[in-house]
Amino acid sequence: MPSPTSDQTHLSRRALLACGAASVSTLGLSAPAKARVAAGANIDYVYEVTKSDAEWRAQLSEREYEILREGYTEGQRTGTLWEEKREGSYHCKGCELKVFDGRWKTFVEGKGWVFFIHPEPASVMTNIDGPTPEYGAMGTGKTPLTEIHCRRCGCHLGHYLLVEGKMTHCINGTSLTFQPASA
Ligand SMILES: [Zn+2]
């Protein structure tokens, strides 16, 4: 399991605690997007967009690769788009599939990730993150997290968490590109 390159650019597993601290106390952002539809499943899922590791590395920056392909979580406020308030659509940086619409974006004070109430229909899939043998149960909890990835290319987007009483998609801005609505 690779390590994050920098504490500034990545919160490793532990740090997502801040995202849903009130209700989620377990982290385990293991590689979520490697052709498994669920942890422990022995059924390989073939994504519509598949690329070799070399192709992903050529397409993505090192930081993007670690988040989109290895499942790391960006540091609070280190990504882009968490402050974006314009109307528009949010697309997977791996394959440009529209995964969220700005009308479902919600701002969670003091967090610094990108939050949505709903994804676009048939745009994301889920996986189970941790506890893992490598990282164990973080904090006091032993509850796995629901990981979210793009259904077309498998790139890691974020997690589905209980945030301030609502089930919310907590997404890395690094995983998204934004297209403002045309005037
Ligand atoms: Zn994608």
From TrEMBL:
Task: List residues of the MsrB domain.
Answer: 53-181
List, alphabetically, the Pfam families matched: SelR
Record's InterPro entries? Met_Sox_Rdtase_MsrB (IPR028427), Met_Sox_Rdtase_MsrB_dom (IPR002579), Mss4-like_sf (IPR011057), TAT_signal (IPR006311)
| EC number assigned by the record | 1.8.4.12
Whether Cell membrane counts among this entry's keywords is: no
> Could you tell me the keywords of this UniProt record?
Oxidoreductase
Instruction: Report which reactions are catalysed by this protein.
Output: L-methionyl-[protein] + [thioredoxin]-disulfide + H2O = L-methionyl-(R)-S-oxide-[protein] + [thioredoxin]-dithiol
- What are the GO MF terms of this UniProt record? peptide-methionine (R)-S-oxide reductase activity
One cellular-component annotation, GO: cytoplasm
Name of the protein this chain belongs to: peptide-methionine (R)-S-oxide reductase
* Secreted is among the record's keywords: no
Annotated GO biological process: protein repair; response to oxidative stress
What is the protein's species of origin? Litoreibacter ponti
